[in-house]
Write a structure and sequence with these properties.
Layout lengths: L1 E6 L6 H4 L2 H10 L2 E6 L12 E2 L9 E2 L1 H12 L3 H7 L1 E11 L2 H8 L3 E5 L8 H6 L3 E4 L9 H14 L33 E2 L2 E2 L9 H16 L6
Helix pairs in contact: 5-7
The structure holds S-adenosylmethionine.
Length: about 230
């Protein structure tokens, strides 16, 4: 899979490429992560990428001609045609909520492009004419789309075959189909008793069927409204 991120801060993505465990996971999963700066492609002088909003108001808006030029030059296609060839996702607080299901859906794509906003966000024509869809990582406002893009990359990477050391880790985890969309059950490790805080007996029993049942019950419990799970 190839994920391309367009941003004003491509160097932020070095953070995802450098740590050995992430680099290994990406390599094993065949993920290529590239980051492009809007400023490297802007047709405007002095690296300009944004402008004041029509109608007035605070802040600056990312320009459609700048984002279009970036897509066109990176993919060698008219900008409006890029979304016919690959998924182009705008990161925005008002987008479709990023969930485990969306992560799975994106992980099935061979190619994905993420557009990070800054300032007041994108000229709406970018969303309407250059992107395929819009995704939000939560109902709050970040200063920019970079952290949102990293969240998407991280969650998508976990879904790719080969990314995790243990193949089962990504199958039975919080919000997965294997757990009917519920949060994961609690985990414990050694010591079995610490300051009088004991690991549930059942987990030490070696009785795999009953352990499986216990875990499913805990997962269901955590998924009930108001459980805080
Ligand atoms: N004016 C916009 C609004 O009120 O919706 C907020 C713009 S925000 C300061 C700048 C950029 O950060 C957005 O264009 C988007 O790319 C990114 N961003 C902020 N919060 C986000 C979220 N919850 N999910 C995804 N991207 C987000």
């Amino acid at each position: 899979m190839q994920i391309d991120v367009f941003t004003l801060f491509p160097e932020w993505f070095d953070w995802m490429r450098r740590p050995r465990h992430l680099a290994n996971a990406a390599e094993h999963a065949g993920l290529e992560l590239r980051a492009f700066s809007y400023r490297d492609y802007t047709p405007l002088s002095a690296g300009q990428v944004d402008d004041a909003p029509y109608g007035g108001g605070a802040g600056m808006v990312l320009r459609v001609d700048v984002i279009a030029e970036g897509l066109q030059r990176v993919y060698g296609l008219p900008a409006a045609d890029v979304r016919r060839r690959r998924r182009v996702v705008v990161l925005t607080p008002r987008g479709r909520m990023f969930t485990d299901r969306v992560a799975r859906e994106l992980a099935e794509l061979p190619e994905l492009t993420l557009l990070c906003g800054r300032y007041e966000g994108f000229d709406e024509r970018i969303v309407e004419h250059l992107a395929t869809d819009a995704v939000s990582i939560g109902r709050y406002v970040l200063a920019g789309g970079e952290l949102a893009a990293m969240v998407v990359c991280d969650a998508v990477l976990r879904k790719l075959p080969g990314a995790l050391g243990h193949a089962d880790s990504a199958i039975e985890e919080s919000f997965s189909e294997a757990l009917d969309g519920a949060p994961e059950y609690p985990h414990y490790t050694r010591p079995a008793s610490y300051r009088g805080w004991d690991v549930p007996e059942i987990l030490l029993s070696g009785h795999h069927e009953r352990i499986r049942e216990w875990r499913r019950e805990r997962s269901e419990e955590r998924g009930r409204p108001g459980s805080g799970g």
